[in-house]
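One chain shown below:
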Amino acid sequence: MKKGWYWPWFVGALLLATATSQGWMIWTATHDSTVSLVPDYYQKGVAFDTVIAQEGTNARLGWRAALSVASLAADGGDVTVRLTDASGVPLPGARVQVTGIHNLDGDRHVTQALADRADGSYVARLPLDRTGLWEFQVDVVRGADHFTADAHVDVTGTPRLAPPAR
């Protein structure tokens, strides 16, 4: 055999390894659910005045929403929202909806209406499938008033062994 016969093979293998690793990185970047964009982010940016107006309404109302999550069980976790007015008086009779977004799975939103317990607290079992940091977006309508709040809760308990089907 001639001396140096392996160099073309080495260069070919190096090019193949480079192309394979770049293909793997492209696939990983496009199939990772932990990296997500806000849906319709441009429209939300254009309509930012409505966000500012809602914050003004929230401040004018003076309501408070205290959110808590019971430990996870196999079928999810009980989410409780306690609504009070500016003086701490409970606010029964509202329509409350909560959207939960796990810190590691921004593409999956869990949304559910909460049941009114008539003492200013609202409860529902949400299909939360993992422990860790969750962001909850609370949306409240009571009469003509509309109130929103965000809460970040570190959920504990026993997560499901397998995530639910999407």
